Amino acid sequence: MGTRDRIIDAAEQAIHEYGIAGATTKRIAKQAACSEALLYKHFAGKEELFLAVLLERMPALAPALTRLRLGVGQGDLAANLVEFTGKALEFYTRAAAVAGGVLGDPPLMAGFRSMLAKHDLGPHLPIQALAEILRAEQQGGRIAPGIDPGAAASLLMGACFHRATLTHFVDLPDDDATWAASIVQTLFRR
Amino acid sequence: MGTRDRIIDAAEQAIHEYGIAGATTKRIAKQAACSEALLYKHFAGKEELFLAVLLERMPALAPALTRLRLGVGQGDLAANLVEFTGKALEFYTRAAAVAGGVLGDPPLMAGFRSMLAKHDLGPHLPIQALAEILRAEQQGGRIAPGIDPGAAASLLMGACFHRATLTHFVDLPDDDATWAASIVQTLFRR
């Protein structure tokens, strides 16, 4: 395992244990058995390192979108969407703690925001990717013409992100599978 | 203005300036011109103080829900829901930084979670309140029978919470009013 991967693993572990606030580069470097100077050779700052954790260690969303894209026009659409909803929920449950920690730290947030803008990245992109898939399904006649694919993607992803955050704060009364089925059924009803 | 209100104002200001991580009781007490001991007479801990900020200084959601409840069966339902969506977006944009900061700090999160459970509170309650209103509108025939009111409430609130979080990270391409109209139109289409 290379140094870069060791550092990303150590960062993920530190975020899990101490939160973003306590995941200092000193702590991360020590856990990765490297110097802080070496850490900064691989990552310009905490922003870049946390982005790598999000993109490289919490990969449930990209493969789930790919699977949904490859399944356009095939199989049972409601079942495909319920499966995707479960994967999105799983991804956001892990990502929420990182995103939240960044949000709760104004200087880190400012750096993170600049970095995303510079690289044309952002947490809104998965909504756009889902909207494109829904548009393709609509063109194939499997989604009602009255649905705006962009709005439907915002609603579905938003519900998953919100629920993932809620589960950190409270024990929800209903189980995820029942919830996912009712969300998909209500949103895509014909 | 009483001491309690001064402390809550100071906490809101400190969260805005330094984030949850930097909003120490020392800093808050100094800003409120009181001792830390006096702060702890009013609030058992940061958890209670931050909850008071959420409930007493960011009140856009409760009045918006009341307005929607009082409007059941009256006026233009889509317009009422679009107005509510705007208010929810406004509330969550301010609340996201507090919720995120709590999420990013595991010990604070654990305390916050226990406190919510003890008082039967939680960020899922507004979804339940919205679901009841939607159920009443459905019984009055203004919402399609195929809609599950609980699922629709999850979708609408989730989309608002997600978008509010996204706006902290990136400049979104579409404006809020257009977005709110398309969300309501897609979700409640007949």
Care to describe what's here?
Two copies of one chain form a homodimer. By secondary structure, chain A is mainly alpha-helical. Chain A has two domains: 1-57, Orthogonal Bundle (Arc Repressor Mutant, subunit A), CATH 1.10.10.60; 59-190, Tetracycline Repressor, domain 2 (Orthogonal Bundle). Helix content of chain A is 76%, strand content 0%. Chain A has ten helices and no strands. In chain A, helix 5 packs antiparallel against helix 6. Chain A starts with a helix and ends with a helix. Chains A, B: It comes from Nonomuraea composti. Chains A, B: Residues 1-61 form the HTH tetR-type domain. Chains A, B: Keywords: DNA-binding, Transcription, Transcription regulation. Chains A, B: InterPro entries: Homeodomain-like_sf, HTH-type_TetR-like_transc_reg, HTH_TetR, Tet_transcr_reg_TetR-rel_C_sf. Chains A, B: Residues 24-43 bind DNA.
List keywords for this structure.
homodimer, 190 residues, mainly alpha, Arc Repressor Mutant, subunit A, Tetracycline Repressor, domain 2, HTH_TetR (chains A, B), Homeodomain-like_sf (chains A, B), Tet_transcr_reg_TetR-rel_C_sf (chains A, B), DNA-binding (chains A, B), TetR/AcrR family transcriptional regulator (chains A, B)
